Amino acid sequence: MTLRVNHLSKRFQTFVAVNDLNFEAEEGKIFGLIGQNGAGKTTTFRMILNLLAPSGGTISWNGKAVHTLNRDMIGYLPEERGLYPKMPVEEQLIFFGRLRGKAKLDMKKKAEYWLDRFDLADKKQALTETLSKGNQQKVQLIVSLIHQPSLLILDEPFSGLDPVNAALLKDAIIDLKNQGATIIFSSHRMDHVEELCDHLCLMKRGESLFSGPLHDLKAQFGKVNLTIRGPFEKEELSVMPGVVSVTREKDMFRLLLSDEEQARNIFDQVTERGFIERFSLDYLSLEEIFKRKVGEALV
Amino acid sequence: MSKFMILFSQSYFSKLKAKSFLITTAIVLLAVFTAFMWPTISSWFSSKSQAINISVVDQTRAHAGELLKGDSRIKFNSFNGSLQQADQAVTAKKADGTLLLALDGSGRMTAQIRTDTPLQLNDQQALSQYVQTANQLFTIQQMKLTPEQAQRILTTKINLDQKTIDHQANGKSAEVKTTATFISYAVAFFIYLFVISYLSMISSEVAAEKDSRIMEIIISSSSPVIHLLSRVAGILMLAFTQIFLILGAVCLMAAGFYGGKYWHLAGTALSSVSASYIFYALLFFILACILYTLIGAVLGSLVNKVQDVGQAIMPVTFVLMIGFFIAISGMANPDTLLIKIFSFIPFTASMIMPMRIGATDMGLWQAAASLLLLAGTIIWLFLFSLRFYKGSVLTYTSGSLFKKMKQARSLSK
């Protein structure tokens, strides 16, 4: 089961919201759609959900046009949260589950399971409006996945969640992935994307800057992120060949290299004096890549 | 269960169980009960108040004072003394007032009520009525008529029988027309009340779902058509539930209170109008409910926030008020050109056409034509709203309703 987006575009009069977007989200994989505000992520989601008709291109699920699909197989968490404020939590979950074609009794059991898993068991009879923002967010998440969708679309799922609850959500997403669901999500939190996604699409003003495996994106920049902890001064590190910049982070130095090959020379130089506590060469973080890519696109 | 039924029952039962609905219904039922029991309730208050004693100073020298007949509320007592003595008695609280009867130069009776403090309006009215009757009797007496002649003058009554020369078109009697006018007024009032209550309810419901973004989840799980239909059907069912509850209570009270007096009265009124009138009035009522509920849902989908609903539905409320006031004007004369024109305009027809059917001699084809126009408008509005409903629930831009409709249509493509 693969979701395939081919040359997708959406125009609103003269404004181009999405332009020639291409990506594939495979079964049992997590796909990240990242970009700044107004990049076209929500518009893309709405086209996948058949809420908006594309101006050009196609979206298919396992070879079939997405608008012909049974909507019950899709789960959707919108960017702006929406729940009935006066409806008790459990009733809300059962209602939306039934709306996705599931039986009431089945949904009651699922609601119990998910409320327990998200530490909301004591809130099932509470009116939704009485819950904290974080708890409402968790209820909203359960609404999107209670019917065990084959395709789950999560628009900013981590917003409003504390680290503990964000971890609960991550576990749930990974579980669904392992059960074979195709998951697409967007987030401004690059650490979450990096942790969860196998593939991603980086968007800027409706255009795709990159689409493919996360590893390929990182490999484009090479291992240029060097961390050193030892008896050095910033000045002596910054004059080493191949060092683009040096920043001090607590008791460490973070060096940005012009290319991966320079790391060997630097290693030889910093170990000339003997033992050093840390020498770690990594890829750039997704956040750094995102800033670079978006920065380039802006230029 | 189909998605329509899931959405419909959610909309219907959530509102049926709402405190606002229960309280409103209870208040209306209490008002109906009070209306039925009013004679008894008012007697509780009036029984406590004492009768008004009026001293009659008769200066007509023709025993005109004896013609005054009092009742339990107003008692007339002949006063054998001067006017000043009568006034002193009033000042001393021995009487509530002095009624001075006298004759003018041409022999006509004059009357004057003299009190220490002004009388209440209803007492003034009752007193005026007694004096009026006494004056009529006094005038008849002065004409030296026999008691039989006097009785004929007082009780004479004529009915104007309507007979058209064209035997194909016999006109309705004035009595039938009057009854139909009052029933039509009730129908118009009911429609007005219904729309005022439920128009903002459905607009607010749709706007709240849009505002809180629930709409996106709902229409991504079902479809905009199902959503629109379920909301319209839910609110209509709620309205009909309330109407049935109130009508049921009215029927029970009418049949049960005062030995079924009101039940018989209503039966007599309804039997005087034709079955086709009732059929048309009912159809117009139902179609008006559907039309305005649909308009409410569409307007609710166009606004961004619940607090904008009032502004959006205001023009509809004005149209409704115009229709209602024209219907009221028809109570005096249902045959005016204004009424004829507005009885064909779909937005006001349901309040005005029933009056024309019952209170004029127009051909029923006109009612059928107006009904078809109304039904056609509903179908057109439904199809038209579907073209932009999907887009409108996803549009959050500011601007006029027309601008939003235009944008919504482009999004729906």
Overall SS class of chain A: alpha/beta
Q: Please state the overall shape of chain B, judged from the principal axes of the Cα atoms.
A: elongated
The sequence of SSEs of chain B as H and E is HHHEEHEEHHHHHHHHHHHH
CATH architecture of the largest domain in chain A, please?
A: 3-Layer(aba) Sandwich
* Separation, N- and C-terminal Cα atoms of chain A: 38 Å
Strand order of the largest sheet of chain B: 2-1-3-4
Provide the β-strand percentage band of chain B: 5-15%
CATH topology of the largest domain in chain A: Rossmann fold
Number of domains of chain B: 2
Description:
The complex is a heterodimer of chains A (299) and B (413). With 299 residues, chain A is an alpha/beta fold. Chain A has 10 helices and 14 strands. Chain A has helices at residues 41-48, 89-99, 104-117, 133-145, 163-178, 190-196, 214-221, 234-238, 262-270, 286-298, and strands at 3-12, 15-25, 30-35, 56-61, 64-65, 74-77, 151-155, 182-186, 199-204, 207-213, 225-229, 243-249, 252-257, 278-282. In chain A, a hairpin with a 2-residue loop joins β9 and β10. In chain B, strands 2-1-3-4 form a 4-stranded mixed beta sheet, sandwiched between helices. By secondary structure, chain B is α/β, with parallel strands linked by helices. The mean pLDDT of chain B is 84. In chain B, 69% of the residues lie in helices and 6% in strands. In chain B, α9 crosses α10 (261-272). The interface between A and B is medium-sized, with 29 and 23 residues.
